[in-house]
Amino acid sequence: MNNLKVKEIVARSYINPSKLPGSDYVINPYVGCPHRCIYCYAEFMKRFSNHDEPWGTFTDVKIRSTSSRPLDLQEKNVFLSSVTDCYNPLEEKYGLTRKLLLQLRHSGASVTILTKSALVLRDLDVFKQMSDISVGFSMNTTDEELRREIEPCAAGVLDRLYALKTLHENGIRTWVHVSPIFPYLSDWKALLEAAAGFTDSFSFENLKLRSAALPRVLLYITRRHPQLRDIYEQIFRQNDMTYWRALRKEILAFCNERKIAAAVHFSEKTPHE
Ligand code: SF4
Q: Tell me, what's the pLDDT at 271?
């Protein structure tokens, strides 16, 4: 978190209606994200944040909200988080996610968490008090070198697998979001084998590159994997879906054969567009 600019802000509300499939509401306790994934889908949030700095160099902490309007969340799904990681390193100091989970505990909501951080284990005691909670990890490789290059400030592969295993052994429903899949780099079969013993299901999402992420990832590929440069140009600049169609079939066949619960969500749009 070197050089991260942190600002405490008052938000209008912590919880907002969600357009994400399967979620009624979404909570993002932070604006910005210090994990600095090179493909980050949330960078478009800069438009709404009054920041000139590059995405990944600032994070606003919603220390308080002006809204006191209680919501009826009975049988609603609440998702944390869509445009930040609710367990980013600032959560260790601020504990916003923990406070929000404590409030959600008796709301009747079904709560879904998606993170790339092992800090999630801190809240195991809260999860155990919740009637409907599911914790997922975004992972796209077992290769620690690749992970460090594309998700430099998120938890390492082994830390994520350890957190997944610990949650599973404590009776928490877990899932692995194999995302985003980097063509010819993400060893998704090895990841499934590594995580299958401690996850209830897998979902798969393709890499989608918009705005600043497109040149950034293509530059990374050119420097580190030049043999893939033309293939990435074809997939991402020409929007050629041939690779993804073939991969979808391969994933479903692989999972069917091993009786692994899997959902493949490949599309040409970024999740937040
Ligand atoms: S964890 Fe998510 S929000 Fe944070 S930088 Fe990575 S992709 Fe972006």
A: 43
Cα 39 to ligand 1 centroid, rounded to whole Å: 8
- Hey, is 205 helix, strand or coil? strand
User: Among 137, 131, 126, 125, which residue's Cα sits nearest to residue 174?
Assistant: 137
Cis-peptide, bond into residue 134, ω within 30° of zero: no
Give the residues across from 62 on adjacent strands. 9
Query: Which atom of ligand 1 approaches the CA of 56 most closely?
Result: 5
Backbone torsion region of residue 95, taken as left when φ is above 0, otherwise alpha when ψ lies between -120 and 50, otherwise beta:
left
* Ligand 1 shell residues, CB under 6 Å: 33, 35-37, 40-42, 84-85, 116, 154
Quote the DSSP letter at residue 57.
S
Per the rule left: phi > 0, alpha: psi between -120 and 50, beta: everything else, 239 is: left
CATH 1.20.1740 holds for 5-265: no
**Buried b vs exposed e over 132-156: b needs ≥16 C-beta within 10 Å?**
ebbbbbbbbbbbeebbebbbebbbe
Indicate the pTM of the whole model.
0.94
Question: Quick one: which of 82, 74, 85 has its CA closest to 21?
Answer: 82
Query: How far is residue 61's CA from residue 28's CA, in Å, rounded to a whole number?
Result: 10
Separation of 113 CA from ligand 1 center, angstroms? 14
Q: What is the pLDDT of residues 13-33, one digit of tens each?
A: 899 999 999 999 999 999 999
**How much helix, strand and coil, in percent to the nearest 5, is found in the chain?**
40, 20, 40
